[in-house]
Amino acid sequence: MIGFKSHRLIQKKSGLIGLCLTTVVLLFISASVDGGSIVRSRHDLSALNWRGYQAETGPMQGGTFSDYRETCVYCHTPHNSSSYAPLWNRELPKEREYRMYSSPNFDSVLPKAPDGISLACLSCHDGSVAVDSILKPPRFHDISEAGVKHRMTLEGEPGSDACSKCHNRNEGAYGGLSGAHDATIRYFTKDLRDDHAFSMTFPTLDQDPQFNQPMILKTDGGRMFPNGIQTFEGDKVQCASCHDIHSPDEKNLEGRDPFLRTSNRGSALCLTCHQK
């Protein structure tokens, strides 16, 4: 028979173990939300209204945005998907309309238009396709689908069917007084001449000896550096070469800026490829 003191000691140890397990679980959930999980990050479009509750703007009202109540469905679907990215569920922009980056000292093969996984990124970030325009919405009765799919206008001009009606600090309909965040910096438009080049083949040592060469071979034909920076099919540099859309680290808990594959402190990300 267990004595009274021994019983109390076992209760204390059990309580301590339970407290430790609870703490570990809470820390894991916290890290998942704030660190390495897409859930409730900026790429979780089902959480837009949740994020609105945390900000001065409050949640969106009325039929301005299709709330599908799922994190993944804004980009992915298990069936009848597009081939530009794994099980891609979004409408794609038109390839031929882009103006690409170029430079006199550009030593790689100049791309005529974006391709590969970068087109999937541009289906949100060039501003020509509404963020809630998907191929296959979920079949649940409680989804809230807007009658109008709002998009950011290409020239930043406010309009009735454009996000820039409010989300444009300089030209928004409310003169920047609506409290809505400025979304224009996240929309590149179709003019990519002022953005880092992508969809070009990574330069070889013969083309430019001032580039480090990734040595880890990938199954898709690309290559990878030890810190996660990589090329894709055809050894091409794409948006996802530097950005990991599923791993936000929005509060910089892992020492890197949001959605980067590695830290850029001291230009570490840039110096992964460039010898400067």
Task: Write the topology of this structure.
Blueprint (H helix, E strand, L loop, with lengths): L3 H33 L11 H7 L62 H9 L74 E2 L14 E2 L5 E2 L11 E2 L1 H4 L25 H6 L3
Antiparallel strand pairs: 1-4, 2-3
Short description:
This protein has 276 residues and is mainly α.
Characterization of this structure:
This protein is mostly helical and 276 residues long. The chain contains five helices and four strands, in the order H-H-H-E-E-E-E-H-H. The chain has helices at 4-36, 48-54, 117-125, 239-242, 268-273; strands at residues 200-201, 216-217, 223-224, 236-237. The chain is globular, with a radius of gyration of 23 Å.
List keywords for this structure.
two-stranded antiparallel sheet, 5 helices, 4 strands, 21% helix, 3% strand
- For the secondary structure, the number of strands is 4
| Percentage beta strand | under 5%
Unreliable stretches (pLDDT < 50, length at least 5) are 4-34
Q: Order of strands across the widest beta sheet?
A: 1-4
Structural class: mainly alpha
Q: What is the average of the pLDDT values?
A: 79
Oligomeric composition of the shown chains: single chain
Helical coverage, percent range: 10-25%
Alpha-carbon distance between the termini? 74 Å
User: What characteristic shape results from the CA principal axes?
Assistant: globular
